[in-house]
Write a structure and sequence with these properties.
Herpes Virus-1; BirA Bifunctional Protein, domain 2; 7-stranded mixed beta sheet; 5-stranded mixed beta sheet; alpha+beta; Rossmann fold; 516 residues; globular; binds adenosine-5'-triphosphate; 3 domains; 23 strands
């Protein structure tokens, strides 16, 4: 197959995900709901396996980490204390002609990026002219056009930062107008005022409307852990340092929702809050950065697919933060966040609830509000990372083509397909016998339709690592053919070995051992 650009590749991945039962648009028969997706029969399996790998690596492998499952609904004051009611906002602006809505900060940042592009062009031109003698730093500080553009950028950034800090939305609008930013659709500068838009979804609790009170769908799972900090610490007799993990749905009313399941309005997070002694946070920050990166690298994707990105602007609750970024088909983007949250959350919950959320440290003989180190990964983004990295369009030696998902075998939705070569002569019965042996341990698939080549292709397309074929010989020698997804090689093995081979090759334990 001719090599394709990453935009087309991403389109192919999206249609493949639909065609093979991984991801469907939500309520598709009603034309879908924007930025909401459903996982199909293969997607649900893959997602479950990723969740299980995270959970085992986090909870089962660490004696001092336990898991909980908190509710999506929480007392509304939770979100006051966490800062989400007041600060979980995006500044929005509408163009009156196109009726399109934009994030005001993104419009300004895009404008700055355009000026940066001009500078880069000048730099590259000069590099070509001067060759080896080119001194980029000197050029940037002396070339009049570059200096002028850099001054423009600095002035915009200073003004924009001041406007955001003062929450001066009129000034944000004025910046957009002064920069003569136009709507890419209508081409006009006819902007509404800028409004803060809270990303939390709200609903009413209570059966009678007068009694109803506003509650929110949680925008992150972390707060369910913080409010249960003492419950878990006391009932589990946990000693600091210890962690609480959970996986579950979170909801954000994202304005600019695109890029498939990368940015959704309903998504799943896998979070772990690690409670530590104040002052030790930098040690633990380093520890969790390394530990989480090891988890990502254990999947065996090529070097350089993941990288750290330090946050320049820290969130209100953090004193150190970075992302693990993954190279998606649309570029490097955040996959997981690692945040040193200090005592911000527990401290605020103490204040708002009036309840003490402290830990008595027997070594120090004193109580304190623990600091928190958080690791937070989006399950759907991890799914997309694995799907896009596993997807390959291949041209085979015989000139035919195949699409294969090279999903790490222990995560594959179907571990093994069992196929009688033909649908008669006692072969289906023999194949069913094998299915009955292995189905207790693994999600397996029985298939007898179509010729064997077509059946192999279908299994390649959903990432099934092994196919077992029963043929007429099997009835004589009690052996079957095992065919490997990645190499397409075929081997003859005795039926008694099928279970062992499968157990060994799709075993999650081997992946977990790599983490030590
Ligand atoms: P972004 O900057 O991409 O909006 P964020 O910094 O707001 O993400 P966090 O609040 O740190 O994200 O959430 C932790 C993780 O949850 C992210 O690393 C990401 O994997 C996942 N996540 C956040 N928002 C979404 C979303 N809308 N859809 C899917 N996953 C998400």
């Amino acid at each position: 197959m001719a090599s394709i650009n990453s935009e087309d590749l991403f389109k192919n991945i999206i249609s493949h995900a639909k065609e093979y039962g991984f991801i469907f648009q939500s309520s598709e028969i009603y034309d879908g709901l924007s930025a909401v997706y459903d996982y199909g029969q293969n997607g649900a399996e893959l997602k479950k396996n990723i969740r299980e790998f995270w959970w085992k690596a986090m909870v089962q492998m660490n004696e001092n980490i336990v898991g909980i499952d908190a509710s999506i609904f929480m007392h509304p004051t939770t979100w006051k204390a966490s800062g989400h009611v007041d600060a979980f906002n995006d500044p929005l602006v509408d163009n009156k002609d196109s009726k399109k809505r934009y994030r005001a900060d993104v419009l300004i940042e895009d404008h700055v990026a355009k000026i940066e592009g001009k500078i880069l062009k000048e730099v590259e031109k000069a590099r070509g002219r001067f060759g080896d003698a080119f001194d980029e730093a000197q050029f940037r500080t002396t070339n009049p056009r570059v200096v002028e553009n850099q001054q423009k950028i600095d002035a915009i950034n200073t003004r924009f930062k001041a406007a955001l800090e003062a929450n001066d939305l009129e000034e944000v609008r004025q910046i957009i107008i002064d920069l003569e930013i136009v709507c890419p659709i209508s081409g006009t500068r006819n902007w509404t005022e800028v409004r803060q838009f809270n990303l939390m979804f709200s609903t009413q609790i209570g059966s009678v409307s007068e009694e109803a009170s506003t509650i929110y769908l949680r925008p992150e799972t972390a707060q369910g852990i913080f409010v249960n900090f003492l419950n878990v610490q006391k009932t589990g007799r946990m000693k600091i340092p210890f962690g609480i993990a959970q996986t579950g749905k979170a909801f954000r009313n994202e304005i600019v929702a695109r890029q498939f399941i990368f940015r959704m309005r309903e998504f799943e997070q896998m979070e772990m809050q690690f409670f530590i002694k104040p002052g030790t946070e930098m040690e633990w920050y380093k520890y969790w950065k390394e530990t989480r990166m090891r988890w990502h690298r254990s999947l065996g994707f090529p070097e350089g697919k993941q990288r750290f990105h330090d946050h320049l602007k820290l969130a209100h609750y953090a004193n150190a933060a970075c992302d693990i970024e993954f190279e998606f088909p649309f570029g490097f983007k955040e996959l997981e966040g690692i945040h040193s949250r200090t005592d911000f959350d527990l401290g605020n919950h103490e204040k708002f609830s009036g309840k003490k959320l402290q830990y008595f440290d027997p070594e120090l003989n004193q109580s304190y509000v623990p600091y928190v180190l958080e690791t937070s990964i989006g399950l759907d983004r991890m799914f997309l990372a694995i799907l896009s990295e596993s997807y390959a369009e291949e041209k085979l030696e015989d000139g035919s083509e195949r699409v294969v998902l090279r999903i790490p075998p222990f995560l594959a939705p179907v571990k093994c397909a069992v196929m009688p070569l033909v649908k008669k002569d006692g072969l289906p019965e023999k194949a069913r016998e094998i299915m009955d042996r292995i189905k207790y341990d693994h999600n397996c698939f029985y298939e007898e339709k179509d010729n064997i080549g077509k059946r192999y292709r279908r299994q390649d397309a959903i990432g099934t690592p092994f196919c077992i074929t029963v043929d007429h010989e099997t009835l004589v020698d009690n052996a079957v053919t095992i065919r490997y997804r990645d190499t397409m090689l075929q081997e003859r093995i005795p039926i008694e070995q099928v279970e062992n081979i499968l157990n060994e090759k799709v075993d999650m334990r081997a992946a977990l051992r790599k983490l030590n």
